[in-house]
Design goal:
With 362 residues, the chain is of the alpha+beta class. The protein folds into two domains: 7-14 and 143-360, no CATH class; 31-138, Beta Barrel (Lipocalin). Helix content is 43%, strand content 25%. The protein has twelve helices and eleven strands. The protein has helices at residues 7-20, 117-137, 141-162, 165-172, 177-183, 195-200, 203-226, 235-238, 240-248, 250-255, 272-296, 302-310, and strands at 24-29, 33-44, 49-64, 67-79, 84-93, 99-103, 110-111, 317-320, 333-338, 342-349, 352-360. The radius of gyration is 23 Å and the shape is globular. Mean pLDDT is 87; it is low at 1-22.
Length: 362
């Protein structure tokens, strides 16, 4: 399980997911550089415009405007019907893969000139767009997949705005999701909650714990991602108030054995009183993190915005329940979809999409 501290351990698994998600194909080779195209991800903006990703790697460092870089990742928007393109997002990186500059202001639309360098990218880019579009259009399921993707995106946007998982449960979740969690024997949806404790705890305590856990997970990850370009030199300097809260809280005082060792946070919670104390700790941490996220305006940072384009999110994958799952009858279609920080399971119930479960992307 990911825990709040140290913060870098929270972020590390997410970074690995982001770096391993893409597949690249060579589209052009120069004497001293190469250009690859991401063939796994095309983002459709409307009926005419789609985004395609390119990676340009140089044999030797390039220099421009006082900067030195050795590769660049560029998101291009193509309108294949009228032969026009524009640069949507550009990231320059040094030889170690560290970000040198991010340019997130789209350029003006330009026409493709025959024989130009851009035509060499535009042609395979439009072929990729047509290939992705034709595959999707063959199935009646496409419309439903789009609905699920839009629903998941709406959830992510509203969570970003509210920064409160409790509000999102009321708006998006199936009403009896908690009973589905409790009754699902193969999976412990409450992470380190002992099953006996789950059986004994009142529903209001289980939901309060779940909300606190998800809020802490989300807000901490949101803060860390937004601050990646800063010098993260340690939790003590980065978030001293959070560390001080953790040190002084009654849960730590009672259950921490060795100072500066936070393994006790992952220990099984074996009683309702311990559950309530742990929940109180999480609620107080999430309250502090919410204030930090608002202070740095995390959702406005380039790192956070880039995640929506680059992490292969909002791509629902359907499956059918072979048995009763999470309170839904056998044969129910479930859609698995990743959003920032979380993995959702979505189902259509009485004609309406509802979230059946949400977990951190571990």
């Amino acid at each position: 399980m990911r825990f709040v501290l140290p913060l870098l351990f929270v972020f590390w698994p997410i970074a690995v997911i982001a770096q391993s998600a893409s597949e690249w194909s060579r589209v052009y080779t120069f004497d001293e550089s190469t250009i690859d195209m991401n063939t796994s991800l095309v983002t459709r903006i409307d009926n005419n415009v789609s985004r395609v990703r390119f990676r340009w790697v140089f044999d030797k460092p390039e220099r421009a405007e006082g900067l030195t870089y050795q590769s660049q990742l560029e998101v291009m928007e193509f309108n294949c019907s009228v032969n026009k393109y524009r640069s949507y997002h550009l990231t320059l990186l040094d030889k170690s893969g560290n970000i040198v500059r991010i340019q997130d202001t789209p350029s003006e639309w330009r026409a493709i000139i025959a024989g130009s360098m851009m035509q060499k990218l535009f042609v395979p880019g439009c072929e990729l767009i047509r290939e992705k579009s034709s595959v999707k259009s063959r199935s009646e399921e496409t419309a439903q997949l789009k609905r699920v993707a839009e629903y998941a995106y709406d959830f992510a946007q509203q969570l970003q705005n509210t920064k409160d998982f409790k509000v999102m449960i009321e708006r998006f979740f199936v009403p009896d999701y908690l009973h589905g969690y409790v009754d699902d024997q193969p999976t412990n949806w409450f992470i380190n909650l002992n099953r006996d404790t789950v059986a004994k705890a009142p529903s209001k305590d289980l939901e309060r714990f779940y909300v606190a856990l998800m809020n802490t997970d989300y807000l901490t990850a949101m803060y860390v991602i937004s601050q990646l370009s800063t010098n993260l030199t340690g939790v003590e300097k980065l978030l001293p108030d959070v560390l001080e809260l953790l040190k002084q809280h009654p849960y730590t005082v009672q259950y921490q054995i060795n100072k500066d060792d936070y393994d006790f946070l992952a220990e099984p919670i074996d009683g309702v009183d311990r559950l309530r104390s742990y929940t109180d700790l999480l609620e107080k941490i999430s309250s502090l993190m919410r204030a930090h996220v608002k202070t740095v305006k995390a959702e406005e940072t380039a790192n956070w915005k880039e995640m929506f384009d680059e992490w292969n999110l909002f791509q629902p994958k359907p499956r059918v329940c072979s048995t009763n799952c999470l309170g839904l009858p056998k044969g129910t279609k479930i859609f698995d979809v990743d959003i920032p920080i979380f993995h959702l399971q979505v189902a259509e119930i009485s004609g309406h999409l509802k979230i059946v479960s949400a977990t951190g992307r571990h």
